[in-house]
Amino acid sequence: MLTPLRERRFALYLIGQLLSQIGDGIYLVTLPFVVLNQGGGPANLGVVLACYGAARLAFLPVGGALADRLGARPVMLAADALRAVVVLGFVVLTANGHIPLWAMITVAVPFGVLGGIFMPASFAVLPRIVRPESLAAGNSLIQIMQSTSRITGPALGGMLVASLKSGVGLLIDAITFLVSSLTLMAIRPSRTTVGTATQHTEDSDPLRTWRSVLGYAAGSPLVRMTLLTTLVFNLAAVGLIEVALPIFAQDSLNRGALGFGVMMTGLGAGSVIGALLGPALLRLRRRGLIALCLGIAEGLAMTAIPVGPSLATATAAMFTAASLQAAVNVFYMTMLQQTVPARALGRVMSLLATCAGLAYPASALLTGTALGTTDPEVVIILAGLGVAAAFAVGFFSRPYRNL
């Protein structure tokens, strides 16, 4: 597990991205209060977030193409450096008093654009900074880092907003992007990896165009099924976590925000445990078949959340589902990085991110609509069954079963 940390390139990458994602968590908490404190209401906040989300989603394919053409590390470096500049611009705006809506949008849109460019490159960069035998452990450590930052960043952001001005949180976010840029600048990819990535000339490369990459994705059982499970999982999980669970905690458990927080703690702890177990899955003989079984078990664990109903049972179910999801994530991310040609990896990862991005608003909208006429328990059970069914489809693909 700790082998990748002995490699200078990966250690620098992990430190930089940990700080950057903690900064993202600070930004997540700070932004709403910046908008609201500057005279904007919930409607303005919704417009700003919608502009950010739409811009990020639209530029995911651009980010994948740039990562394949220019290299993932340079794209990440440029995106983080420019995000530091954008956030610093936002800090200047907050210092001048009232911020008009159009000014907030002019910050939100480029921030979303750069986030969309950054994401596929961040998924594709790992094979270029660690040795092949350290790939699974590297993905596991990244998963742990992400789980840690999701807890630390928002908590730190809440303390900063409560005790200091919101602009301080934005300033710290800008600094984390700058530090991430410097760590990426200090990384030098191995010559072997770079040579592998550029061994095809542009004219002879069969994966030169987006059309050819889409054809490759459609013909690859691994890519095709990973896209399907990513789409279905996010359609099920986003609405469950962000809409159904708070209502379940409030109405069914009578525990309110405290109960929801306890369940989210279980989710975070499960993600860490699952990430630790992920590399072991890659060493098993029937790993593809076992991964499918774990995915189905994850969906069934989600259906157990409303059993009782009991906060202890719901938290245990969240912990189990999150640990299984994290282990499966490490497995399939590593398989993609090992299998997809390096010259197309950025664009394939952008397809993966696009599936998740498209599912996010659809899941929230569908869940919110369903909860108008249905109990949260029913929504949670249907979401879990949907995840189990998506992984069950993989049993019909022999190459996917035998990964």
Element layout with pairings:
Layout (H helix, E strand, L loop, with lengths): L7 H30 L4 H17 L1 H11 L1 H24 L5 H24 L10 H29 L2 H21 L4 H7 L12 H10 L1 H32 L3 H27 L4 H17 L7 H29 L2 H29 L5 H18 L4 H4 L2
Helix pairs in contact: 1-6, 1-7, 2-5, 3-4, 3-5, 3-14, 4-5, 4-7, 5-14, 6-11, 6-13, 9-10, 10-11, 10-13, 10-14, 10-15, 11-13, 12-13, 12-15
Verbal overview:
The protein has 16 helices and no strands. It is an all-alpha fold. It has 2 domains: 3-197, MFS general substrate transporter like domains (Growth Hormone, Chain: A, Up-down Bundle); 210-401, Growth Hormone, Chain: A (Up-down Bundle).
Keywords:
403 residues, mainly alpha, Growth Hormone, Chain: A
Taking the sheet with the most strands, its summary is: none
End-to-end C-alpha gap: 22 Å
| Count of the separate structural domains | 2
Strand content: under 5%
In short:
The protein is mostly helical and 403 residues long.
